[in-house]
Amino acid sequence: MSAAVGLSHVNLRVRAAQLAHEREGHFAVRHEVFVRDQKLFPLTDVDERDDHPSTIHLIGEVDGRMVGAVRIYPIAGPDRWQGDRLAVQREHRASRLGVDLVQLAVGTAAALGGTVMEAHVQVSNVRFFEYLGWRSNGPTEIYVGTPHQPMSIDLTSLVQ
Question: I need a labelling partner for 99 at 20 to 30 A (CA). Which of 26, 45, 84, 108 fits?
Fold first, then answer.
């Protein structure tokens, strides 16, 4: 799946990372956001989930430069999916890139047979996810020292 959206002189594009340099760019965006900017992880946010064959790494580009990332993977069977590590470089957070990445993530999971997607969302981003149709799913939890809200979205309405 790929989406290209033109906003004045800015060209946004989201798609799955398929080549080695695209995966490296995906990890570089996450490192910048979660290690350097937010300091959620001391050295790296990469974990064993990144090497699992079912994990899909999605990337977001602005004018051909990789500036966004998110990963998705099935949990507890093919109908339930997890979305996590949504990262958009600070200077591009006001663009539609985050929206496009989340929509690609849920659309991809739905197309692969998913019926629900779950995520642990930083509390400061809950309203953004609610705007995109996500709902809170349980009490706030602490993850890597930061409050996160479990959320989910019904994927069945996305499949046509």
Answer: 45
